[in-house]
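Appendix C. Worked example: DUF3857 domain-containing protein
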Amino acid sequence: MKAFIISSLLLTSILSNSFAQNTWNVASIPAELKEKAHAVIRKSETIFTVKNLGEATEKNHRVITILDEQGLQYASMTLFYSKLEKVNNFEGVLYDSNGEKVKKIKKDDIQDGSAVGNGTLFGDNRYKHAEFKYAIFPFTVEFTTETTNKNLLFYPMWFPQEDEENVAVEQSSLKIQMPANLPLRYKSINGLAEPTLENIAETKSYTWQVKNLQVYENELYSPKWTRYGKGVLTAPNEFEVEGFKGSMKTWKDLGEFDNILGKGRDVLPENVQQEVKQLVANISDPTLKVKKVYEYLQSKTRYISIQLGIGGWQPFEASYVAEKGYGDCKALSNYTKALLKSVGIESFYASIRGGSNERDIHSDFPSQQFNHVIVCVPMKNDTIWLECTSQDNAFGYLSDFTSDRYALLSTPEGGKLVRTPVYKAKDNQQNRNIKVALAEDGNATVTAVTEYTGLLSDDYSDIKNLSSREEQQKHLYKRINIPSFEVNSFSIQDEKKRIPTATVKLDLNVRKCASKSGTRLFLTPNLMSAINTVPPALDKPRQTEVVLKVALTETDSVTYQLPKNATLEFKPEGIKFENRFGTYQSEFQVKDGSLLYIRKLVRNQGKFPPESYAELIEYYKKVSKADRTQVVLKL
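Step 2, the predicted output written as C-alpha cells:
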C-alpha cells in the first residue's frame, strides 16, 4: 500500500512537471495565429494595483513565442525606473519549441544602466534589461516583473497588439484594482468589450481581456494604432506626486496642476529684467516685442534635458535658467513666459505631445497624454506659438514636431485645450526652377534652384544648421531624384520667417538626361520631381480610413536648351486633372531652340473613407504616368 502511494505521488509529480514544462509547446498555438506572424503573444497579464492617490504596484507576466528571426526583438525585456519608480522583481525563462525549460535569467544576466541620453545633464532615469540570445526557432520567452510606481500622473494605456505588425495574440488581459473610495475613469476604443467588474472588501477591480487576435497588416496611409486598434485608456480623477496633489477629472483641472507646479518659479533676476526691457524699449508693436524676446532666449540659452523626480514634470526656476543658460523644455518655456511677463506680455505654458510622427491625444479623455512643453502667446489678431528648445527655429513657427495637434494651455483660469496651427498647401511649397543645357549625346549640365517653404523646409534647414559641409552633400545625393548625376557645387540657405524657407542651389552634371537611339533623343522633361511609385493595390477590402497628413504644392519650371541641330519631332499635349486628393497640371512650350516644361501638383490634406483608397491609387497612377511623359527630338 505504501509503495502504491509513493508511486502515485511520483506519477502525479511527473505529470505535473510535464504539464508545466509543456504549457508553452509551440504545437499548441492555433494555426490561424501563426499565419503571417513573426511572434505570438501566448499570454500577457498586467495587474495594476492602486494603493492610494500616490502609489501603485504593477505586475506583468508576459509569454511570447518567437517564430522566426524577424521576431527576435520580442526575446528581450526592458524596465525603466527612477526615484519615483522602483523595480521589485525581474525574472525570465527560455523554453524550446516543445515547451521544455532551457535557461533561466540569472541576476548577472540583467543589465542595469543609466537611461539618461547625451542631451540630458541631470537625470535619475535608469533601466534594467535582459535578453535571450537563442536562434533555434521557434522558441518561447517568459518574463515576470513587478514595479512600484509613485508617479500616478500616468495610469495604464493598454493595446493588446500594441502597434506591432505581424504579431498575434493568444490571450491578453489588463486588471486595475482601485481602492473603493477612488474612482477609475476609462475609455474603451474600437469595440473593446466593457471590463468585468469585481468588488472585494475595500477594492474594486476592472478587468479587460482579449483572445485569439490574428496578425494585422499595416495599411498605407492609415491612422495611428491608438485610433483604430482595440484598447483602453485609463486615468484617475485625483492623484498625488511627491506631495503635489492634483486632479485630471477635466482638462481645466489638469491645467491647474501645471499652474501649481509652476507657482513662484517665474521670478527673474533684476539685471535680466532690465536687459529685456531695454531691448524692447523702442518697440511699440507687441508682435515685434515677442520676436525680440524670443531671439534673446535663443541667443542666451540652450536645451539640456533635466529629469529628476518631480523635476521631470516641474519646471526649474526662471532664475536658474538665467544663471546657467540652459534648461529642458519645461524650464525654457517657463523662462520665456517670465521674460514676456517682464515686458508686459501675457503668455501660457502649453503641454503638447511632440513628435514628427506621434499620435495625437484623445481630446475627449482628460489625462496626462503629453511629453513636451511650448509657449502660447495670445495676441489681439493672432496667436503666436514659440518652440523654446531650439536655437534655430523661426519665430512663431511650429514644425511637424508640434503643429496640427492639441495643446493644453495653463491659463489663470485653469487648463484650456486648443489646436496648434495647421500648415496648408499654400504654406508647404516646393518651387523649382531648372536650366538644362542638353548635348547631342543626351548628357546635360544642369543648374537648379529650389525654394522649400513651411514643413517642406524643415529637413533642409536642419541639414544646413546641424551638418558639416560633407554631410550636407551626402544628404543631397540621397534626395536628388535623378538616376545618374554628379554634384559640381551646391549651397543651402534658410530664412527664418513665420513660414520659413530653405533654398537649395545645385550645379550638376547629368548623364543620359535624354536617351539616344539613332538620330533621336527621348527626353522626359520632369527632371527632378517625378513620382515613380504608386500605392500598392489590396487583395482584400481596406479596413482603415485614408489619412494624408501634409498638404503641399509643387511647381516646376524646367527650361531645356536643345542641341543646335535638334528639331522637335513630338511634343505631348498639356495634362490637367483633379479629384478629392489634389490637382495636377502640366504644359509644354517651344520657343527659339528651347523647350519649357511647367508642372504644378497640389496634394490635399485630410481623412477619407476606406473605399477611397482605390481612387487614391488611380490618382497616383495618373500623376506617375503624366510625370513620365516624353518629348522626342530629331537630330
